[in-house]
Recover the amino acids of this structure.
């Protein structure tokens, strides 16, 4: 009988985060100030982030030590298990071996607390009293609410309106941990009021919610802003996933031929893949695949250029694959993937040919989620179903070609708060949305010229 679970002892929790920047075989484009259009300095970012996170954002150190206080909290759920999906393999009748790293065992049920705890810790060290943030599906908001609770910080969450109403129990979870949660766009900020004036029924977007959270933070001396994806330091903190997975794949006696993760902003994908990409840089033969929604396909159909991270143009200008900061994605249920841009590091790796990307419509990924639940028992979050869909297609391709293939993907969260979406799928009411090219082309006309 094949071994199913590969478990690491707590002593194997990584002691360092892996910073991929020093290993990149190409230079990263600079970041620019949204007003002056000059390269951003640490002082420019100081009103938004604590200095230690700013240092991590630009660090050229290959490894950054994880503080003991952070590792102590990590012990509540880390190391997370690696599973071999033997039942899924049998169902697909494939010669492929399918493994998944399961981040849904954390208290908030996703990979997000890997960075939330670190960010709350560094803010607390600098005397910050309150954090603001945005959240889509609520995975990031609940993770930061938990982290702020541990470090006795106030937490204000601007939750994308469509998800606020789709996923009311995510809001309840955040409030249990002491956070204040409002639907975005909200009347609490100038950015929110402006959007509500233009469209009172706006479903919101992560770009809108970011504008509100940043505006809130910069207007108060006791407050900083916390981001759950996209930026270098956030992706850095997630690399504990891949570092553990490397050890667990060694326990399994295999090395993946392909590593897969869903992408919205890029953090869970980077967390699993970056340590494996390090091995790719060293000569290991491995494919790395990012999977995104067909309705918000920044990598597969976006433009690689400088853009704002938010609608109100308050964030620094990042070079990334983007659909335009004004792009409002359709109200798909994978709320964590409804972002107009992709992390600069992930974007640069894709632009330079080190990773691949594929996009799927939501009925196709929910089909994969149901197959996975019926074979492996875990109901996955809608975001993670994108990675499952790609893993299934890889396994079927291996079957068709009659070749063994080792597949590893990140199951970044559970779907217990997403059952209404599964209800829609099972009743045949779930709609597919596709990239509205005319709207995006219009949005891209407003990009800054750098």
């Amino acid at each position: 009988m094949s071994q199913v679970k590969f478990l690491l002892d707590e002593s194997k929790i990584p002691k360092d985060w892996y910073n991929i920047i020093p290993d990149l075989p190409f230079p990263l484009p600079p970041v620019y100030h949204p007003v002056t259009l000059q390269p951003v300095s640490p002082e420019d970012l100081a009103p938004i982030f604590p200095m230690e996170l700013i240092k991590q954002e630009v660090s050229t150190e290959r490894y950054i030590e994880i503080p003991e206080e952070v590792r102590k909290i990590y012990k509540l759920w880390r190391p997370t298990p690696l599973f071999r999906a033997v039942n899924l393999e049998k169902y697909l009748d494939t010669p492929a071996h399918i493994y998944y790293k399961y981040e849904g065992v954390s208290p908030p049920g996703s990979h997000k607390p890997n960075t939330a705890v670190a960010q709350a810790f560094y803010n607390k060290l600098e005397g910050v009293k309150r954090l603001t943030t945005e959240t889509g599906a609520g995975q990031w908001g609940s993770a930061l609410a938990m982290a702020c609770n541990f470090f006795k910080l106030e937490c204000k969450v601007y939750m994308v309106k469509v998800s606020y109403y789709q996923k009311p129990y995510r809001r309840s979870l955040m409030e249990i941990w002491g956070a204040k949660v409002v639907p975005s766009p909200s009347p609490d900020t100038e950015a929110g009021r402006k959007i509500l004036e233009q469209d009172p029924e706006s479903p919101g977007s992560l770009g809108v919610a970011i504008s509100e959270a940043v505006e809130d933070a910069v207007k108060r001396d006791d407050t900083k802003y916390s981001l759950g994806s996209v930026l270098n330091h956030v992706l850095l903190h997630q690399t504990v996933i891949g570092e553990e997975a490397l050890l667990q794949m060694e326990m399994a006696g295999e090395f993946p031929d392909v590593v897969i993760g869903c992408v919205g902003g890029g953090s869970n994908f980077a967390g699993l893949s970056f340590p494996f990409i390090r091995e790719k840089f060293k000569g290991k033969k491995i494919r790395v695949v990012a999977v995104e929604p067909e309705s918000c396909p920044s990598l597969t159909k976006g433009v690689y250029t400088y853009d704002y991270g938010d609608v109100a143009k308050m964030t620094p200008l990042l070079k990334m694959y983007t659909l335009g900061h004004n792009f409002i994605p359709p109200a798909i249920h994978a709320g964590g993937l409804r972002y107009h841009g992709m992390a600069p590091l992930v974007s640069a790796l894709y632009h330079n040919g080190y990773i691949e990307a594929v996009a799927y419509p939501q009925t196709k990924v929910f089909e994969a989620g149901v197959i996975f639940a019926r074979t492996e028992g875990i109901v996955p979050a809608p975001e993670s179903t994108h990675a499952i869909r790609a893993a299934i297609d890889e396994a079927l391709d291996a079957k068709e070609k009659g070749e063994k293939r080792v597949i590893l993907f990140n199951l970044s969260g559970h779907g217990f708060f997403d059952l209404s979406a599964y209800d829609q799928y099972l009743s045949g009411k779930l709609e597919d949305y596709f990239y509205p090219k005319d709207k995006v082309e219009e949005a891209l006309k407003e990009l800054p010229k750098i």
Remarks:
- The chain has two domains: 5-12+78-109+239-445, 19-62+112-225.
- Residues 5-12+78-109+239-445 form a domain with the Rossmann fold fold (CATH 3.40.50.1100).
